[in-house]
């Protein structure tokens, strides 16, 4: 029989595993929190680390809290519900600081207070998996389990808006009644201000009776169905009138932003509004300025910027999103102030940036891969050619840190401020924002 191992937990990783050391080796402990003393069972030994599971908590953390969701621990959607929300934010802020310091070798002059909002009901976009499970006598609809490829057997989800959570069980019943329950792998949810879209992927044709069932479900539950029979090009609304109903608003700027259920939009609408406001205030805008918005998507920052300054150029890789952004500019009467370009921003250089002309301000909001080519191009520009201020919004602290290292250590920009944004409470996902300043003679 193996002897129980007792460990003191030092910190938490982003999968919410406690980090400890045992005889010089790192151990990741599922279910343990920083400052706790726990007895563990080692579940896997690797050359450079072990993983373990808590068998007994000897000394519990003051920040430990009872997970609110009955599916916590099984469902892979959330990892941190057993930790107070304020402590979750503090951990994310520390992850950001550590990444900047160790990966980027940079330190901001000030840390910004974290941006946070409601901790439940915030997830306005989700991809729900669907599985027909003969053994359980029906269909499961939900997130995947933490371990393995199974769909969690869940009847509610507290991070989804309540009206979406309330659809989980009716959706199971609906899919079980369709003629092709085994051929529906997923349903994507996109919540707008006026409607909620359910986008169903189906690998076989739906029958006329199936279509009737979907329509009547849509009427009963107040949702719009979209269908995807094949690739992304095949996505379409079930009824034509639903084609333009999906939109979110940015009330501070008087904007309505239409989108399609497959477009990139920020998951948490409340935090998005706060984030757009914060980013614009950190840019220190003035009416006569020229601003560039890189990785602009459907214009989430571009259009608000256009309400404040003379000219904004949005650059984005997807032509479809650029078209959508321009359309939104037109319906919001901002088309005179915005220009859009579709372009691969992973392949740009200093010459390309020079050709765009000088900008007073720059906003960068890249995908997880970050903005390395853009950062290298900026680092090569002269003081006169560069924007005075850059605000960088990031969904990956590691690539933000790398790019900050390029901007500061090679380009001699100054990193003024950085802070965490709790876009996804209870998950390990870290969103952040950083502000860089052009420095003369650097
Ligand atoms: C984090 S999203 C930000 C979108 C937008 N700023 C917003 O707030 O909704 C990143 C955007 O980068 C775009 N993107 C991804 N790879 C790209 C590339 N190589 N070149 C240009 N844009 C890219 C995606 O299409 C997406 O719209």
How would you explain this protein's 3D organization?
With 442 residues, the protein is an alpha/beta fold. 25% of the residues lie in helices and 28% in strands. It contains 10 helices and 22 strands. It has an 8-stranded mixed sheet with strand order 7-21-22-20-19-16-17-18, with helices on both faces. A 6-stranded mixed sheet has the order 1-5-6-4-3-2, with no helix packed on it. Helix 1 packs across helix 10 (397-410) and helix 8 (350-356) crosses helix 9 (372-380). It is flat, with a radius of gyration of 24 Å. Bound molecules: S-adenosylmethionine. Residues 264-266, 295-297, 300-301, 316-318, 321, 344-346, 365-367, 395 line the site of S-adenosylmethionine. S-adenosylmethionine is lined by residues 264-266, 295-297, 300-301, 316-318, 321, 344-346, 365-367, 395.
Please name the defining characteristics of this protein.
single chain; 442 residues; alpha/beta; OB fold (Dihydrolipoamide Acetyltransferase, E2P); Rossmann fold; 3 domains; 8-stranded mixed sheet; 6-stranded mixed sheet; flat; binds S-adenosylmethionine
List the helices and strands and how they pair.
Layout: E1 5-8, E2 11-12, E3 17-22, E4 25-30, E5 37-45, E6 49-59, H1 85-103, E7 110-111, E8 125-133, E9 138-142, H2 162-165, H3 168-177, E10 186-191, E11 196-201, H4 208-221, E12 223-228, E13 236-237, E14 247-250, E15 255-258, H5 269-282, E16 290-294, H6 302-306, E17 311-316, H7 319-331, E18 338-342, H8 350-356, E19 361-364, H9 372-380, E20 389-394, H10 397-410, E21 414-421, E22 431-437
Helix pairs in contact: 1-10, 8-9, 9-10
This protein binds S-adenosylmethionine.
């Amino acid at each position: 029989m193996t002897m129980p191992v007792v460990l003191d937990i030092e910190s938490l990783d982003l999968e919410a595993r406690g980090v400890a050391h045992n005889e010089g080796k790192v151990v990741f402990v599922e279910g343990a929190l920083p400052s706790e003393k726990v007895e563990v069972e080692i579940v896997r030994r690797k050359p450079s680390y072990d993983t373990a599971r808590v068998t007994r908590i000897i000394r519990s953390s003051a920040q430990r809290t009872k997970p609110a969701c009955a599916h916590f621990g099984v469902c892979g959607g959330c990892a941190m519900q057993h930790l107070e929300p304020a402590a979750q934010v503090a951990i994310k802020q520390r992850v950001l600081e550590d990444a900047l310091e160790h990966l980027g070798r940079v330190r901001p002059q000030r840390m910004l207070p974290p941006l946070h909002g409601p901790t439940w009901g915030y997830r306005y976009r989700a991809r729900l998996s669907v599985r027909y499970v003969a053994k359980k006598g029906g269909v499961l609809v939900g997130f995947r389990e933490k371990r393995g490829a199974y769909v969690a057997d869940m009847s509610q989800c507290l991070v989804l808006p309540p009206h979406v959570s309330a659809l989980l069980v009716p959706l199971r019943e609906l899919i079980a009644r369709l003629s092709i329950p085994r051929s529906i792998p997923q349903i994507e949810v996109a919540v707008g201000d006026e409607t909620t879209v359910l986008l169903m992927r189906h690998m076989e044709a739906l029958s006329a009776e199936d279509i009737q069932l979907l329509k009547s479900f849509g009427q009963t539950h107040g949702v719009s169905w979209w269908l995807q029979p094949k690739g992304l090009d095949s996505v379409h609304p079930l009824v034509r009138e639903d084609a333009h109903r999906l939109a979110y608003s940015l009330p501070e700027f008087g904007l309505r932003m239409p989108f399609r259920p497959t477009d990139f939009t920020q998951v948490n609408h409340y935090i998005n509004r706060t984030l757009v406001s914060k980013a614009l205030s950190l840019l220190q805008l003035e009416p006569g300025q020229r601003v560039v918005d890189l990785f602009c998507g459907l214009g989430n920052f571009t259009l608000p910027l256009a309400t404040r300054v003379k000219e904004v150029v949005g650059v984005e890789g997807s032509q479809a999103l650029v078209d959508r952004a321009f359309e939104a500019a037109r319906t919001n009467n901002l088309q005179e102030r915005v220009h859009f370009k579709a372009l691969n921003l992973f392949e740009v250089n200093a010459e390309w940036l020079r050709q765009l002309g000088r900008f007073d301000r720059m906003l960068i909001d890249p995908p997880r891969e970050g903005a390395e080519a853009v950062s290298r191009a900026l680092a090569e520009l002269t003081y006169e050619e560069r924007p005075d201020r850059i605000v960088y919004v990031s969904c990956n602290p590691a690539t933000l840190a790398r790019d900050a290292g390029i901007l500061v250590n090679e380009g001699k920009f100054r990193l003024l401020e950085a802070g965490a944004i709790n876009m996804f409470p209870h998950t390990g996902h870290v969103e952040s924002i950083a502000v860089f300043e052009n420095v003369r003679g650097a």
